[in-house]
């Protein structure tokens, strides 16, 4: 298993002042079996949000984000956003091959 730090979004409710739902970002630990990781790429959406403002309190504005696609039962996949550049995970994944 490989430990990642997932950044996930949750709704903070509708804000009448801005006319849309506000979202909060939080962090949590995520452990994945490397055999189930299908793909990994930079998460440009979170990267842009981070540059325009603080996504999570205390998180460096220059932090990198990756999007991991993981195989799940039933020929489906699930995508996770994690902190770190894809290159930083390659050495971790190589240890399991």
In round numbers, the mean pLDDT is: 85
Q: What structural class should be given to the helix and strand makeup?
A: alpha+beta
Distance between the termini: 12 Å
Number of strands: 5
The rough form would be described as: globular
Estimate the strand proportion.
over 45%
- Largest beta-sheet details: 3 strands, antiparallel
Q: Level of helix content?
A: 10-25%
**Helical element count?**
2
Rg over C-alpha atoms, rounded to the nearest angstrom? 15 Å
Q: Could you name the ranges where pLDDT drops below 50 across 5 or more consecutive residues?
A: none
Instruction: Describe the strand arrangement of the main beta sheet, using strand numbers.
Output: 3-4-5
Question: Helices and strands, in N-to-C order?
Answer: EEEHEEH
